[in-house]
Amino acid sequence: MADINRNYDGFASNKCDSQWKVNKVRALHTMRDHREVERVYDEFAEYFDELVTSLEYCGPFFTSRTVSRIESKTDAKMLDVACGTGLVGDELHKLGYTQIVGTDLSQSSLDVLARKGSYTKSVHANFGPSTPLDFDDGYFDVAMSCGSFLPMHLNEKCLPEMIRLVRKGGYIIITTRKYIFEGETGDMKLRPGLIKLTQEGALTKMAHEENLYEKDGDDHVTGITLVYQVI
């Protein structure tokens, strides 16, 4: 595995080139277990926003604009799953949304999030079927996740808990890389998981939009934003 926990000083002083940054992001996608995920994001939290911004990471922008199209009430209850340092909530806050809860495995990332003031609450948790959040069924109007459906991060087994937490008629929004959605890598089987839940009558698919997700060297990675309604 590439070592992403070194040479922070070089990054902070802007001495590292774009390929160095691309390699760091790629390494985030190849971790082996949840303990490693937690450790790496904790150690990398203070630099994460600057890193992904330098790579023109647009996922939070597209996610927040999708929210604004489907939920106009700025006091609607939002859940940001695997929120990291809060980039999605920062965008939602700019649009006037005031009730945003974030949950993440990395406490250091949540500490960065808290300093920015966009979220009303943060929950340190490994989100999934065996660790339900302490909220009533249907508590939220919208649950979203941006950039976190990856091997050893979130996978399709997390979807039922997202559904439980959203009211009937509310929405689930997922923004991710197109190749992640279309492939089955490691523990990730997002597309068949969503198809199954739709066939079972738990969700209705509302939208599937492609976007320019982030830079990868001289190229751009294609992303998708998916919208499902809870029924």
From TrEMBL:
Per the database entry, which stretches of residues form a coiled coil?
none
Q: Which GO terms describe its molecular function?
A: S-adenosylmethionine-dependent methyltransferase activity
Pfam family for this entry, one: Methyltransf_11
Q: Where is the Methyltransferase type domain?
A: 79-174
Source domain of life: Eukaryota
Q: Which InterPro entries match?
A: Methyltransf_11, SAM-dependent_MTases_sf
Task: Name the chain's protein.
Answer: Methyltransferase type 11 domain-containing protein
**Organism expressing this protein natively:** Strongylocentrotus purpuratus (Purple sea urchin)
